[in-house]
C-alpha cells in the first residue's frame, strides 16, 4: 500500500538494446521527427503486457538507477524549467522568481506574474536531478553552483540504414535514425521505472520480456524492491501558493465554446485556484498507437504535450487558502492531474501516466 491507501508496485524495464521512440511527426527527407525517451503511453503498454491486462493507473516512466552501495533504486527527474544557468557564468545557476507586472494578458485580469532573474540564461537541455535534490527544490531552496545536476541517463546512437523492396534497395532511401540507450557504467544499472496502481483483476505476477518502443525491441521486467519513492512534498503552503512540477509530460483537455474537447496547456485545477505564472520549455509532439492483433495498428493519434520539467505557480483563494492548498497538494502529489475529468480521453491519458505532478512552495 502507498500513502494514499492504494495497492501499487513499481516495475522496472531494462531494454536489451537501444530504444527508439519517435515523437510522431513525419519521418522523411527534410522533416523534423526526433527520437525521444519513452512516453508514458509507451510504458503503459509495456505494463499491460507484463501483467496480461491493464492496471488501474501507471505513473512514469522515470530513468532509475540501482545504487550498488545502498542497494536501493534512485529515480531521476528532468531539471525544473525555472532553474537556469547564469548567462555570463554558466557554472552558476539561478532560479527564476515571480515579479509583479500589472500587464493584462489573454488569460484575463492583471494578476499574471513574470518569471525572471538577473542575468538568467536559456533553459538547458537533458539535465536531471535526483529525488533528494528535487525534494529540496520543492521546499523552496535556491540552486547552488551546477544546481546539483546529474549527467544524462541516456546516450544517443545514430544508425544508418536502407529501405528495401524485396531484395532491391529502394531509390533515395538511405537514411539515418537516432536511438536512445540507458547509460551503462561499471557497477551501475539503469531501468525505466513506473509505479503501477493495481486493481482486483491484477492477480498475475508481471512477466517479461515485453516490447518497448519501435521495431519490436524487447525489455526485461522486474519488480523493484525496495520500491523507489517520490520526493516528499512540503508540510505547508503559506498563503495558498503551490508550485506544480510536471514529472511526466502533460496532455490536458478542456471543453471549448463549441462543445468539443480540445488540448490545453493549462492543468485542471480546483475552482478557487488560478495559474499565476508558468515556465514551459515545449511543446512536445506525442504520438501513440495500439496494435490491432494482425500486424497493424489501431487508435493512432498525435497530440501536443507540456514537457516534463515544466513548472506552474498556482495561487489558491477562498476563506482558508493555505488549508485548501495543503489538502489539494496532499491529494495530488505523485498522481496524474486529469484522472477525474469528465472527458474520457483526458481520463485515459491521465491513467496512462501523462501529467504526473509533484507539489512544492513558491514565494
Automatic annotation (TrEMBL):
What the entry lists under Gene3D superfamilies is as follows:
2.60.40.4350
Q: Which InterPro entries match?
A: CRISPR-assoc_protein_Cmr3
Domain of life, source organism: Bacteria
Q: What is this protein called?
A: Uncharacterized protein
